[in-house]
Amino acid sequence: MTKTRIAIASALAAALVLPVAAQAQGNTEKCFGISKAGKNDCQTASSSCAGTSKKDAQTDAWLSVPKGACEKIVGGSLAAKK
Amino acid sequence: MPLALPDLQAAFAAHVAGGDRADLAAVIVGDSIPAEARLRVYRHHVSHSLSAALAATFSTVHALVGEGFFRGLAQGFVAEALPMQPVLAEYGAGFPAFVAAYEPARALPYLADIARLDWALNVAFHSPEGRRLAMADLAVIEPDRLPSLSIALPLGAALIGSHYPINRIWSASQPGASAETVDLEGGRADLLVLRRADDAAFIVLDGGEAAFVAALAGGESLEGAAEHAASAEPSFDLSTAFARLLSLEAFAALRQF
Predict the structure, then answer these.
(1) A-B Cβ pairs (cutoff 8 Å, strict)
(2) Beta-bridge mates of residue B202
(3) Per residue in B217-256, is it b (16+ CB within 10 Å) or e — as a string?
């Protein structure tokens, strides 16, 4: 066994006996934003009106600008300047 | 002139994807509503339903750009990539790449990375949780055998790296987030997305941990991964990092030992 390998083996073994407080640094971010609702219900009832418009949907993205939480993201060379 | 069934179906599919087909309209009975308008109902319904599915999967992208912009973005993608399978939760694998190339979104250079994060969370959420590697599993192994072990990430896990602080951008885009701003130049982020008991979640990794996890995911042994991490980040502390990742249940259980 090489020196590095011995060092790695003991560092890994040490990880298994670290006190719990030292282990739990940094909790996970719970992602409540994920929609758990089924998406395969084919848009029945409430949205069927929106879904059956006889007009083509407008694709006006070339004219529109993002209007959402991105206003909170500031700085950066490529970001839109205010 | 009636169309043969395969031609009729192909024409209808092409129409739904956005192409106007005079030959198709010609064989539809118009009656009180013109044939073209009848056909548009289907195109609109497909586009609307798939856009709504994308908005649910890419909820952070949706929150960042708002409804109007997202609709244009989603409809552009739908027209280019109709689903290849029947499960809408599995629709949108190509959306992050589409966002990256989408000209109107160029002012938001982080948006494609947020789309990758949304997609990874969606994949993790729809993956089985699986048994995770616990400290007790390793405690029974001879310490000098530990370096040669290969350990895998859980099913549905993904490492998402970005030049932008996408964890903070993600947090700022959640419903009920504070009005605090996020500095786009706040540094890179490396996130490990994981399936949790009843949710999906991500862990923020430092540079050494990210190199360690990436090497393990690439099939390296613990020893090889430790060396990768140490060269990526000289201050990498193997014991602390390994203990933290184990306690966060970031690895799949060993298949055999």
Answers:
(1) 238
(2) A29, B193
(3) beebbbbbbbbbbbebbeebbbbbbbbbbbbbbbbbeeee
User: How far is residue B58's CA from residue B124's CA, in Å, rounded to a whole number?
Assistant: 14
A18 contacts: CB under 8 Å, gap ≥ 6: B239, B240, B243
Report chain A residues whose CB lies below 8 A from the CB of B106.
78
- Tell me the pTM: 0.86
Which of A31, A32, A48, A74 has the highest number of chain B CBs within 10 A, making it the mutation to test binding with B? A31
Q: What are phi and psi of B255, to 5 degrees?
A: -75, -40
Nearest partner of B161 among B94, B109, B214, B100, judged by Cα:
B214
**Do the Cβ atoms of B44 and A65 come within 8 Å?**
no
Domain boundaries, chain B: 128-257
Kind of pairing between the strands at B189-196 and B158-162: antiparallel
Contact A29 B242 (CB under 8 A): no
Give the Cα separation of B125 and B197 in Å (integer): 10
ipTM of this model? 0.75
| Cβ <8 Å between A24 and B247 | yes
User: Mean of the pLDDT values across residues A11-32?
Assistant: 68
Report, as an integer, the average pLDDT of A24-30: 57
Is CATH 3.40.50 the classification given to domain B128-257?
A: no
A44–chain B nearest CA distance, Å: 10
Q: What is the pLDDT of residue B175?
A: 86
Q: Which of B200, B202, B238 sits opposite A12 (nearest CB)?
A: B238
Indicate the SS3 state at residue B191.
Answer: strand
- Determine, for residues B59 and A35 on separate chains, whether the beta-carbon distance falls below 8 Å: yes
Instruction: Determine, for residues B87 and A40 on separate chains, whether the beta-carbon distance falls below 8 Å.
Output: yes
